[in-house]
Write a structure and sequence with these properties.
By secondary structure, the chain is α+β, with helices and mostly antiparallel strands. The chain is built from 27 helices and 18 strands.
C-alpha cells in the first residue's frame, strides 16, 4: 500500500482519525472492563490489579509501543503464571503473595526492556508452533479447572489443575443454584453471541458480548439479592448461602487500590522462577499477538517487535509498581479494535482512558458484578484455547505435530509452564533427529545463493530447515534487498519442518507487500507427512501419489467438460485473492481444488478457500468455494453485493448507505449494494445486470476495481452449485466485456 494513504501518527493522527479511534476505544473498553476484572481475580489478585494493568497498557504503553492497532492489557494466558506465583510466594498468605508477585512483575519488566534493547524480538521465531499451541491449550484447561467452580459458586478443596478437574463433578452436584443460574446464563450468552447464526446479523456484531453478560449478571444479582448475606433451603434438604462475597469487591477510594510491591523475597529461588516464567510467557504472547495483528491490519503495517517489548517491559514496571498485573498485546481485543475501524494507537489510549474514568467515577457499578459472570467469561475463554477444534487443526498438520501438542499439554498440567514448553521443544527436536535432520545443521542452516540476474536471487537450502536454525535462516534471507525476486530451492534439503513453512508463508507475504516476488521450489522432492500445505516434509525415495476423493473426482469431470484445468493440490504462496476486500480483515491460509480457464481478455479461477480471522482464542475460520475473475479488459467500480437481510434494512433506515435503483425495485429490495464511488456504480449497473443478479439471489459479489470475487456463502459447494457458479462467472465476464465494447 502506498505510504501516502497510511494513517498519520502522533497528534496529526489524532486529529485525522479521532472519531474512529475514540469510538473503537469505547467499544474495546466495554469488552476489556469485565475481562480485566475476571483475569485479575482468577490470578489471585484484587480486581483493581486488572484495572491498573488495562489503564497503564492503554494510556502509557500505547504511546511507547511499536505497533499501531493492538490493545494492551491483562490476558488470560498469564492467569496460570500469576496465580502460581501468588500461591508459591505467599505460602498461604494471599496478600503477601500478591505483593511478592508484584515485585516479580517489576523485575520481569526490567528483563523485558533489556530484551527489547538487545533486539530479542526475533526469538518469537524460535519456538515451534505446535508446542506454543500446546502451551496455550494447557493454559485453557487450567483456567477451566479453576473457574468452573467459581461459575457455580463452590469453593474446591484441590489446588493443582488435575485434581481440580477431577473435582468438577462434585462441584456440579453441589453447586449453589442461584449462583449457578448466573454462571450458566452468562455462559449461554457468550455461546449464543459467538454462534455462526448470530454473526449473520451485522447489528449483533456491534454489541459486545462481555458487556451483555455483565448487565444480565447485575440484573440477576439484584433479583437474587446478592448485596445482602442470607441462607435458603432447597427442597428442605440443602442449605445455601449467598451474599456480597459472590460480588466483585473494589475499594471505596480508587487510590486505596494502589498496592506497592514487596521485594523481600528477591533472593528466593521461587521468586526468580516466577520472574523467568512471567518473562517468557509474556514476551512470547506479546510477540505472537503483535505478529498476528499485523496480518489483520488493513494497512498491513509491520510492528517494531523490539520496541513493543521495551514498551511492555516499561508497562510491567509501572503496573507492577502500582499493584497491577503484567500485560501483553492482546489478540482478541486487538481483532475487535480493527473490526471497529481503529486506525492508530489513539484507540488503545482511548480504551485505557475510558477505563480510568469509569473506575474513578462509577466504582459502585463494578461492585454489582457477580463473580459467577466473570467466571463464565473465563471458562469460555479457556474452552476456546483448548477446544476440540484446536486438536483437529493440529492433527490435520500431521500426527507428529499432534504428538508435540498433546505432550506439551500433559507435561504442563503435570508440572508447570516452563517445563511444559521446553518438553514440547525437546520432543520436536527428537522427531527431527528421527527423520534424519543432520546434527551439523541443527542450529546453523546450510544455504548458498546464486545471482541469476540483477533482480533474481536463487537460494539453495541443503540438509535441514527446522525451527532451531530458522532465525539464522531468516536473517540470511532478509539481507537480500527488497523488491527482488527470491527463489528458495529446497531440492537439496532432507527435512523442512512445519514451523519453518508457516514462518516462510508470512515472510513471503511481507516481501511481496513491498514489491518483491517470493517463490518456493523443490518441496515436491520431499514427502509431506500429511495433506496439509504446511505439513513437515522429509526426504523419501517413495513419494506418495495423491489420491482424489469422491468430490475431487467429480470436480475433475466437470473441469474436463467445461474446459477448465484442475489442480487438487493445496496452494499457499501464490494467490491473487489476497488483495480483495474480503481479505482486508481476514488472513488467507491456503486454497485447493483449483480450476483455471484462460479466456480472451480475462482469466477465471475457482477454488476451495481456507481463511481465518483473528488468532489464538479469537480465531474464526472461513472455508468456502469462490470464483475469481482477473486480467479483465477494463477497470470497473469497487463494490460489494450481498443478499439484504432484515437487519440491513433496519440499518439503512438508520442512515447506513445502501445504493438503490428506482428503475429496479426488486433488485434494490433483494440486495445490499455499496461501494466507494456511487456515481460510477450507478453507471456500471444497468437493468440487464440487475436482472441477472435477481436470478442468483444467494450469491455475494465484490470487486476491488480490477478483479471480481463471487461466492455462495461460507461453504464448500457441491457439484450442482459449482456448475451454477461457473455459469454466473461466465455471465459476469461477458457483461464486463460488453460494457467495454459499448464504451468504445
Amino acid at each position: 500500500m502506498n505510504t501516502q494513504s497510511l494513517p498519520k501518527e502522533g497528534i496529526a493522527g489524532l486529529r485525522e482519525n479521532w472519531q474512529k479511534d475514540v469510538l473503537s476505544g469505547f467499544f474495546i473498553f466495554l469488552i476489556a472492563l469485565p475481562l480485566s476484572l475476571g483475569i485479575a481475580m482468577a490470578s489471585g489478585m484484587p480486581p483493581m490489579a486488572g484495572i491498573i494493568a488495562a489503564v497503564v497498557g492503554g494510556t502509557i504503553v500505547s504511546m511507547l509501543a511499536g505497533s499501531y492497532v493492538t490493545i494492551n492489557g491483562p490476558a488470560a494466558g498469564l492467569i496460570v503464571v500469576m496465580l502460581g506465583a501468588v500461591e508459591t510466594l505467599g505460602a498461604g498468605d494471599a496478600m503477601a503473595g500478591y505483593k511478592f508477585t508484584l515485585a516479580a512483575t517489576v523485575v520481569s519488566g526490567g528483563f523485558i526492556v533489556l530484551f527489547g534493547i538487545l533486539k530479542a524480538g526475533v526469538l518469537g521465531d524460535f519456538f515451534p508452533t505446535s508446542a506454543v499451541h500446546g502451551l496455550l491449550a494447557s493454559i485453557g484447561i487450567i483456567i477451566i479447572s479453576k473457574q468452573l467452580h467459581v461459575m457455580v459458586g463452590v469453593s474446591p478443596v484441590a489446588k493443582a489443575p488435575i485434581p481440580l478437574l477431577m473435582e468438577v463433578p462434585h462441584s456440579l452436584l453441589t453447586m449453589n443454584p442461584q449462583i449457578a443460574i448466573i454462571g450458566f446464563t452468562s455462559l449461554g450468552i457468550l455461546i449464543l453471541f459467538n454462534s455462526s447464526y448470530i454473526k449473520r446479523f451485522k447489528v449483533m456484531k456491534m454489541i459486545p458480548a462481555p458487556m451483555v453478560v455483565v448487565l444480565v449478571g447485575i440484573i440477576l444479582g439484584h433479583i437474587f439479592d446478592l448485596e445482602h448475606e442470607h441462607t435458603y433451603l432447597l427442597l428442605d434438604t440443602h442449605e445455601y448461602t449467598i451474599g456480597p462475597k459472590f460480588l466483585v469487591t473494589l475499594p471505596a477510594n480508587v487510590l486505596d487500590g494502589i498496592v506497592f510491591p514487596d521485594f523481600a523475597k528477591i533472593g528466593n529461588y521461587h521468586f526468580w522462577m516466577s520472574v523467568l516464567t512471567i518473562t517468557l510467557v509474556q514476551s512470547l504472547e506479546t510477540i505472537m499477538s503483535a505478529k498476528a495483528v499485523e496480518q489483520l491490519d488493513p494497512y498491513k503495517r509491520h510492528a517494531n517487535l523490539n520496541k513493543d517489548l521495551r514498551a511492555i517491559g516499561i508497562g510491567n514496571i509501572i503496573s507492577g509498581g502500582l499493584g497491577g498485573l503484567p500485560m501483553i498485546a492482546e489478540i482478541v481485543r486487538s481483532s475487535a479494535n480493527i473490526a471497529n475501524g481503529a486506525r492508530t494507537v489513539w484507540a488503545n489510549f482511548s480504551h485505557g482512558a475510558f477505563m480510568l474514568l469509569f473506575v474513578v467515577f462509577a466504582p459502585q457499578l463494578i461492585h454489582q458484578i457477580p463473580l459467577a459472570a466473570l467466571g463464565a467469561m473465563l471458562v469460555f475463554t479457556g474452552f476456546r484455547l483448548a477446544s476440540p477444534k484446536e486438536f483437529k487443526i493440529v492433527y490435520k498438520i500431521g500426527s507428529s505435530q499432534l504428538m508435540i501438542f498433546v505432550f506439551t499439554i500433559i507435561m504442563t498440567l503435570a508440572t508447570d509452564l516452563l517445563i511444559g514448553i521446553f518438553s514440547g521443544i525437546a520432543l520436536k527436536l527428537a522427531i527431527h533427529l528421527y527423520y534424519g535432520a543432520p546434527l551439523s545443521s541443527l542450529f546453523r542452516p546450510t544455504v548458498s545463493v546464486r545471482h541469476d540476474d540483477a533482480d533474481t536471487y536463487h537460494i539453495y537450502v541443503a540438509k535441514s530447515a527446522i525451527f532451531t536454525n530458522y532465525i539464522a535462516f531468516k536473517q540470511f534471507i532478509q539481507r537480500i534487498p527488497k523488491g527482488k525476486h527470491i527463489i528458495l530451492d529446497f531440492s537439496g534439503a532432507e527435512i523442512v519442518d512445519h514451523t519453518v513453512l508457516e514462518h516462510l508463508h508470512h515472510l513471503s507475504e511481507e516481501y511481496e507487500e513491498v514489491g518483491g516476488k517470493f517463490d518456493l521450489v523443490g518441496l515436491d522432492n520431499l514427502t509431506p507427512l500429511s495433506g496439509h500445505p504446511l505439513a513437515m516434509r522429509v526426504a523419501s525415495a517413495n513419494v506418495k501419489t495423491a489420491i482424489l476423493n469422491e468430490r475431487q473426482q467429480r470436480i475433475a469431470e466437470i473441469a474436463q467438460k467445461q474446459g477448465f484445468t484442475f489442480s487438487p493440490q493445496k496452494v499457499l504462496f501464490d494467490s491473487k485473492l489476497k488483495s480483495l476486500p474480503f481479505f482486508m480483515t481476514k488472513q488467507f491460509k491456503y486454497e485447493e481444488n483449483m480450476l483455471h480457464k484462460n479466456l480472451d481478455e480475462s482469466h477465471i479461477q475457482i477454488s476451495d478457500i481456507h481463511a481465518r480471522e483473528g488468532d489464538q482464542i479469537g480465531v474464526r475460520f472461513y472455508n468456502f468455494t469462490a470464483l475469481l475473475i482477473t486480467d479483465m479488459p477494463a477497470k470497473i467500480p469497487q463494490f460489494s453485493i450481498e443478499r439484504e437481510s432484515f437487519t440491513d434494512k433496519m440499518l439503512a433506515k438508520a442512515g447506513f448507505k445502501d445504493i438503490d435503483f428506482d428503475e429496479h425495485k426488486q433488485f434494490s429490495d433483494m440486495f445490499l449494494l455499496h461501494g466507494t464511488n456511487e456515481a460510477q456504480i450507478r453507471a456500471f449497473f444497468d437493468v440487464n445486470l440487475m436482472d441477472m443478479m435477481v436470478g442468483y439471489p444467494n450469491y455475494h459479489v465484490e470487486s476491488d476495481g480490477s478483479s471480481i470475487l463471487i461466492h455462495k456463502g461460507m461453504k464448500f459447494l457441491d457439484i450442482k452449485d459449482l456448475e451454477e457458479l461457473m455459469q454466473l462467472g461466465e455471465m459476469w465476464r461477458n457483461y464486463i466485456i460488453q460494457q467495454r465494447v459499448t464504451s468504445l
